[in-house]
Design a protein that fits this description.
The protein is an alpha/beta fold. The protein is built from 17 helices and 16 strands. Bound molecules: 3-methyl-2-oxobutanoic acid (KIV) and zinc ion.
């Protein structure tokens, strides 16, 4: 097993093949800069022959002066390869199917013809003095004797690295280990692996390939990619580092930042329970867990992977499983110090809310605590909302105006947005001024009742520059008002916590 593994990121190529994802050239460049900052060794920037725009994007990334090597994808045709060369990429990644099923139904050639095309493509790339990565598409469903013949053929033609794609994600780790071992015994050229996640085994299969001698892994941020996606960069890198003790060039403290950026630009949201970077990856709710974690984090965390290592935050979440320790600590942070009897009553009310199927937001907890303790925080609110007005329509850009008292001073904020909710939320942020550095983290909208006058419940999460996150909820028949009230409530709580 190699001690250093090269990270080949294909977010901008296979990741962009995620159904429903299409990145603008500008956003691709933004992601490429972030991948470079993260420290990926190779960025597969795209498939230049696919369109004029794609070629321009790859070209721009190749000329952006990044430290990562830039790769372009091509079939085994000269026109595809020329398109990559025209972009001046560092690496041309050429591929051809090798499994009988794909040969028969996609390219309709004989095995011999496929082998010849592969060899010719590699020779053509090498003639241009460029690094060549060769992929036998659907390798894991290819007859092994034939596959070895293909890999040995391209090795002889001077391919610099061969990739083993599990194109339809059908491998299991034990089979992958044996598969890669056989190839490793038959060729000297370094081995790269590309696993799809159709059965949720992409990362496990990638790790098995590394155990068997693969030197490079193809991954995507947030596991984006065709169908169920590819092996996730975050999970693969952290498993290599924390479990195997294998080195990569990834600066892991940028993992969450990178994941959030790709989430935002791709529009594909990751579930909260996503390993490493998901909202809940280091969140604890149950009493037993939070009690342990508050004393020593390793009690209910891996220990070899901390939130700091990946740029995340540990969170103690209040819910119906919460224990007294966590609730008390959360309340102390905002200056609320209930007596033991009051704390028991607060706990009871939280559990009642949870039993009714309600998610207990931070704002709910504080409201419950203040009610039980007989404290009313109204006077302490940073923002007191006075007026909200929005204008929207098919011929105008949605615009919102917010009037409010901020720390006792009259303020007015006006903003446009992609819709009335967006404009109103931006207007609220404007009245706080740039110094406030409050980011909207989470926005969830649910219609509680049916019909066009349905009661809409909005839950919003906000984060300050120190990573403190507060969630709050508001329900109204008017979505804009519910959104504004939830945001104002969350900001007020965050300000209180800061103080
Ligand atoms: O899944 C696959 O086989 C691919 C190849 C182009 C490497 O994405
Ligand atoms: Zn793929």
């Amino acid at each position: 097993m190699h001690k250093n593994i090269r990270i080949f990121d294909t977010t901008l190529r296979d990741g962009e093949q995620t159904p429903g994802v299409s990145l603008t050239s500008h956003n691709k460049l933004v992601i490429a800069h972030q991948l470079d900052k993260l420290g990926v060794d190779i960025i597969e920037a795209g498939f230049p022959i696919a369109s004029k725009g794609e070629r321009e994007s790859v070209k721009k990334i190749a000329h952006a002066g990044l430290g990562s090597k830039i790769c372009g994808l091509s079939r085994v045709t000269k026109s595809d390869i020329d398109a990559c060369l025209d972009c001046e990429v560092d690496i041309v990644h050429t591929f051809i199917p090798t499994s009988d099923i794909q040969i028969k139904y996609t390219i309709k050639k004989s095995r011999e013809e496929v082998l010849q095309l592969a060899v010719d493509a590699v020779e053509y790339i090498k003639k241009h003095g460029v690094t060549c990565l060769f992929s036998a598409m659907d390798a894991t469903r290819t007859d092994m004797d034939y596959l070895l013949k293909v890999y040995q053929g391209v090795e002889k033609a001077s391919a610099d690295i061969i990739n083993v794609p599990d194109t339809v994600g059908v491998m299991v780790p034990s089979a992958m280990y044996k598969f890669i071992s056989k190839i490793h015994d038959a060729v000297k050229v370094p081995i790269d692996v590309h696993c799809h996640n159709d059965f949720g085994l992409a990362v496990a299969n990638t790790l098995a390939a590394v155990e068997a001698g693969a030197q490079q892994v193809q991954v995507t941020v947030n596991g984006l990619g065709e169908r169920a996606g590819n092996a996730s960069l975050e999970e693969t890198v952290m498993s290599l580092r924390a479990i195997y003790g294998v080195k990569t060039n990834i600066k892991t403290k940028y993992l969450v930042e990178t994941s959030r950026l790709v989430e935002r630009l791709s529009g594909i949201h990751i579930p909260p329970n996503t390993p490493v970077v998901g909202e809940n990856a280091f969140s604890h709710e149950s009493g037993i867990h939070t009690h342990g974690v508050l004393r020593r984090a390793e009690t209910f965390e891996p220990g070899v992977m901390t939130p700091e290592m990946v740029g995340h935050k540990r969170r103690i979440v209040v819910g119906k499983h919460a224990g007294k320790h966590a609730v008390k600590k959360t309340l102390h942070e905002v200056g609320l110090r209930p007596t033991d009897a009051q704390l028991d009553e607060i706990m009871q009310r939280i559990k009642d809310l949870g039993d009714k199927g309600k998610r207990v937001t931070d704002a709910d907890l504080y409201a419950i605590a203040e009610t039980v303790m007989g404290e009313v925080a109204k006077g302490e609110q940073a923002i007191v909302l006075e007026e909200v007005s929005v204008m929207t329509g098919s011929k105008i850009t949605p615009n919102a105006v917010i009037k409010a008292k901020v720390h006792g001073k009259q303020k007015r904020g006006s903003q446009t947005g992609v819709g009335p909710v967006d404009a109103a939320l931006k207007a609220v942020q404007t009245i706080l001024g740039k110094k406030a550095k409050i980011k909207l983290r989470d926005f969830r909208l649910e219609a509680i009742t049916g019909g066009s006058d349905a009661l809409a419940e909005v839950t919003i999460g906000v984060e300050d520059e120190k990573g403190n996150i507060i969630t709050a909820r508001a329900a109204r028949e008017d979505i804009v008002m519910a959104s504004v009230e939830a945001l104002v409530s969350a900001i007020n709580r965050l300000m209180l916590k800061k103080r």
